[in-house]
Design a protein that fits this description.
The complex is a heterodimer of chains A (102) and B (812). Chain A is mostly beta strands and 102 residues long. Chain A contains no helices and nine strands. The termini of chain A are close together. Chain B folds into six domains: 168 residues, 3-Layer(bba) Sandwich (FAD/NAD(P)-binding domain), CATH 3.50.50.60; 114 residues, FAD/NAD(P)-binding domain, CATH 3.50.50.60; 164 residues, FAD/NAD-linked reductase, C-terminal dimerisation domain (Enolase-like, domain 1); 66 residues, no CATH class; 71 residues, Alpha-Beta Complex (Sulfite Reductase Hemoprotein, domain 2); 150 residues, Sulfite Reductase Hemoprotein, domain 1 (2-Layer Sandwich), CATH 3.30.413.10. Classes of the chains: A mainly beta (102), B alpha/beta (812). Strand 2 of chain A pairs parallel with strand 39 of chain B.
Chain lengths: 102, 812
């Protein structure tokens, strides 16, 4: 059984923005896109560990602030032609509240 | 049911169009492709290296069978379309296959021209057009010794070079007296001939072929005047003709090629045509760059967006013979209305000629040193007025920085294992390999795949040369015609004017009004749009923090480990014990690991944690300091020398002038970073002549210099003018800054902007037009009303964006 932890409400995160959750193994970036979908990735780009939470969010993608790698928010997979994968976490929303499973 | 799109001709132009269609809308069409060759789509321009043994067929495949499957495209290889029933909208292949269409695309390319001399149909007489021809040549080279290539143009020389490398003795026969006369003038053509002769090719110039001799296969070639030379293989490379056989047969209007309009539509509105088979505004093109431009336009209409037009192309060429460095573009011969600038250095084997018309580059031809080819081509396509840089035009500029590429400026002279890109450690061989194996055509492609020149850009000129010498031309779009990003087809200029004309005050409004393809834009267009609305509508624009790059969103510079640097403003680079004490205390209080003096005369506190930023800013505010904007596309610093107040050489109070200018300009957002300096005398200790706006005091007033920068490629400023009073310095500074803010493209510094529009243009507006200068200056002052609020104070104590700096929560 997944262990769901409540971390806040959708409105806590700016549209097309991100907030950090301090996790047991480092920061987790929580993203909200323009369609109010919420995603969670380890706050570390697979390239040079840039903080993804500080990147620009567009559609279901975040662009890393250090070297412009593009990471898919739902899968953590790096978009071609670059290669790699950022850690991702499951998220669920219930009545506007965000839960994360580590 | 989906509409049906049928392509006749499985070549580069047709398939590029299909790829562009898929990029715009991959669900609109059910696509079928007919090709008469038994292969997928391959890179025809790389046939020469295959012949030369430098590449294999597999290396040059652009779309293999799997690609067609993955994209749900039905490919009929080895089938030639022999008829089109335009009433029933059906195509018919030679094996009887029929396929109906809603839209038809004809891309039948061209046929080699065969001179109808006696013996032209003997076995052993071939052209140089496709894989089949290359196979024949490779086979012949194994069995035979003597080859004659008829035609000393681009294709003929590449064929000759390839056959020679395969071990044959090769004679090139050319009707004219200049090799490659469509790409070379007599001088460059002569230099080319000399170096090819040194490599072992033989030439018969001004010679016309009379007959090809032999009974059941080629034995010899006879020329006018009676000379005969023996030959086992004859390659006809005298030119190509648009392949219009099918189009003519079905009654489409053709002249030399299939006639198309600016949307690539033929006289039958259901039928489009692209590539070497078309004739557009009287021109038929045989190079890849124009075909790609046509493909883009055609796709735009096929998916019914209908907003782009093809208006013809200016082309450039290079010969793909390894180690030979030549370049030409535009009209390099000239006429009565043009003038030439020529530079020739016989012992170095270097020749450059630039043809000017009305102070603009009309054409260029270069041999031996082509590092500036891309620059001339850019000036040519942008039609930049070059009168101000005429003196230095031949010395070149090169898209090449001063460091990071080991001093190399000619890619041809580098070996494959030499490093081209010092930032990312990419070798020449790695770039060339990626171009062929991954099917790359443009600088942007190469940057994305190899990272060469993708960081500081210093080695761009080398990478451009490698692309050109691998592919034989320049396929990148001129900056002026380049869309902002993949979310739109609009150029920066079109976006800027639409934002003004349509009163668009937020990036999101702009994306909606201008039919952006994506809902949210991307990391490239969002910051650009955000900037453009702020400049156009300073009082009303919505400055969207989510469209700001991180540094501008949190008003500090992100470092490699995710910490930030904090640089308080020090007006004109002047500080005092009180400020220094406060900075020292703050550095202690927040455990700042590194304190450093910057190049812009400021103090940098490095390694600050994000959640400490607002607290530090509050302390700095309390000590009277504000944001130094060292993180922004904005006015950075005004650097000064001590001037007449202390210096025995100083002629004016440069420090006071610098402080004054900084107070007027701080906080203003710019297309890129913007630096000012004020020196108190021509010794120029503040290095004003490598700044975006530099002021140098002289006894009789102030010299104003513009468009300089240090860094990747040092560019000294151009002198804008000389003024006498402090008020004038201020007005000119504000006007110049505003012109740059309003007209440069986002992420252009002043140097590339001035090089694109020309210094003459800037002078006309700032120096020669008093009314316009005043208006620009006033607009700058007006816009500053909305930008001179300290962003640190807003966030430290003003309640702006406070959530940005604190974690949502802590778990686990």
């Amino acid at each position: 059984m997944a262990d769901w932890k409540e971390i806040g409400i959708i409105e806590d995160i700016p549209k097309l923005g991100s907030r950090i959750v301090e996790g047991p193994d480092g920061d987790i970036a929580i993203f909200r896109n323009s369609k109010d979908e919420i995603f969670a990735l380890k706050d570390e780009c697979p390239h040079k560990q840039g903080p993804l939470s500080q990147g620009i969010v567009h559609d279901r993608t975040v662009t890393c602030p250090l070297h412009n790698w593009k990471i898919e928010l739902d899968t953590g997979v790096v978009k071609a032609p670059d290669e790699g994968c950022a850690g991702r976490y499951d998220i669920k929303i219930e009545t506007g509240k965000i839960f994360i499973s580590l | 049911m989906k509409e049906r799109l049928v392509l006749i001709g499985n070549g580069m132009a047709g398939m590029r169009t299909i790829e562009e269609v898929l990029k715009l809308d991959d669900k609109m069409y059910d696509i079928t492709v007919f090709g008469s060759e038994p292969y997928g789509n391959y890179n025809r321009i790389l046939l020469s290296p295959v012949l030369a043994g430098e590449k294999t067929i597999d290396d040059i495949m652009l779309n293999d069978d799997q690609w067609y499957k993955d994209n749900n495209i039905t490919l009929h290889k080895n089938k030639t379309i022999v008829n089109i029933d335009r009433k029933k909208r059906t195509v018919i292949a030679d094996d009887g296959t029929e396929k109906s269409y809603d839209r038809l695309l004809i891309a039948t390319g061209s046929n080699p021209f065969i001179i109808p001399v006696p013996g032209h149909d003997l076995p052993g007489v071939i052209s140089f057009r496709d894989i089949y021809d290359v196979d024949l040549m490779l086979e012949a080279s194994k069995k035979h010794n003597h080859a004659v290539v008829i035609g000393g143009g681009l294709l003929g020389l590449e064929a000759a070079n390839g056959l020679m490398l395969q071990g044959m003795s090769v004679t090139v026969v050319h009707l004219g007296d200049v090799l490659m006369e469509r790409q070379m003038d007599p001088v460059a053509g002569g230099m080319l001939r000399k170096s090819l002769e040194e490599r072992g090719l033989n030439f018969l110039m001004s010679t016309s072929t009379e007959a090809i001799l032999g009974d059941d296969c080629v034995k010899a070639v006879r020329f006018k005047g009676g000379l005969e030379i023996s030959a086992d293989l004859v390659v006809m490379a005298v030119g190509i003709r648009p392949n219009i056989e099918l189009a003519e047969k079905v009654g489409l209007h053709c002249e030399r090629g299939v006639i198309v309009n600016d949307t690539m539509q033929t006289y039958d509105p259901k039928i489009y045509s692209v590539g070497e088979c078309v004739q557009h505004r009287g021109e038929a093109y045989g190079l890849v760059a124009p075909l790609f431009e046509q493909a883009k336009v055609c796709a735009n209409h096929l998916v019914k967006m209908g907003i782009s037009f093809y208006e013809g192309s200016v082309t450039s060429t290079k010969l793909k013979v390894t180690g030979i460095d030549l370049f030409s573009a535009g009209d390099f011969i000239g006429d009565d209305t043009t003038e030439d600038i020529v530079m020739q250095d016989v012992s170095r084997g270097v020749y450059k000629k630039v043809v000017l018309k009305d102070n603009k580059i009309h054409g260029a031809v270069m041999y031996g040193d082509t590092v500036d080819g891309a620059w001339y081509f850019q000036l040519l396509r942008d039609q930049t007025d070059v009168s101000e840089i005429r003196e230095s035009l031949m010395l070149g500029q090169a898209h090449l920085g001063d460091s990071g590429h080991g001093g190399h400026n000619a890619a041809a002279a580098m070996s494959d294992d030499m490093e081209v890109c010092g930032c990312n450690g990419v070798t020449k061989g790695c770039v060339a390999k990626a171009i062929t194996e991954k099917g790359l055509f443009t600088l942007d492609d190469v940057r994305a795949h190899t990272k060469a020149s993708a960081s500081c850009g210093s080695c761009t000129g080398l990478v451009e040369q490698i692309i050109a010498s691998t592919l034989g031309g320049d396929y990148s779009v001129s900056e002026q015609e380049k869309p902002v990003c993949k979310c739109t087809d609009m150029t920066h200029e079109a976006v800027q004017s639409a934002i003004k004309a349509q009163h668009l005050t937020s990036g999101l409004d702009a994306m909606k009004a201008l039919d952006w393809r994506t809902d949210d834009g991307c990391h490239i267009c969002r910051p650009a749009l955000n900037y453009y609305v702020i400049v156009a509508w300073p009082a009303e624009a919505f400055d969207d923090p989510r469209s700001r790059f991180i540094n501008e969103r949190v008003h500090a510079n992100i470092q490699k480990d995710g910490t930030y640097s904090v640089i308080p403003r020090m007006w004109g680079g002047v500080t005092n014990p009180k400020e220094l004490r406060a900075i020292a205390d703050i550095a202690d209080k927040y455990d700042v690991p590194t304190v450093k003096v910057t190049g812009g005369q400021r103090i940098d506190l490095l390694g600050v944690k994000k959640d400490d930023l607002p607290k530090m800013w509050k302390d700095l505010n309390n000590a009277g300091m504000v944001s130094g904007h060292a993180y922004g596309k904005s006015l950075r610093t005004v650097k000064t020398c001590v001037g007449e107040q202390w210096c025995r050489f100083g002629t004016q109070d440069s420090t006071a002038m610098g402080i004054k200018l900084e107070q007027l300009t701080w906080g203003s957002w710019m297309p890129h970073k913007f630096k000012i300096a004020v020196s108190g005398c021509p010794r120029n200790c503040a290095e004003a002549t490598i700044k975006d706006f530099g002021v140098v005091a002289v006894d009789s007033g102030w010299e104003l210099h513009v468009g300089g920068n240090g860094g990747i490629k040092v560019r000294a400023t151009d002198l804008l003018c000389k003024v006498t009073t402090e008020e004038e310095v201020i007005e000119y500074c504000q006007a110049f800054t505003q012109l740059y803010r309003e007209e440069a493209y986002y992420l252009d510094r002043t140097a590339p902007w001035i090089e694109r529009v020309g210094l003459t243009y800037v002078k006309e507006r700032i120096v020669e037009n008093d009314a316009l200068r005043k208006e620009l200056s006033d607009r700058f002052v007006e816009s500053q009303k909305y930008s001179q609020t300290d962003p640190w104070a807003e966030r430290a104590t003003g309640g702006v964006e406070t959530n940005e700096f604190i974690p949502l929560t802590k778990i686990g």
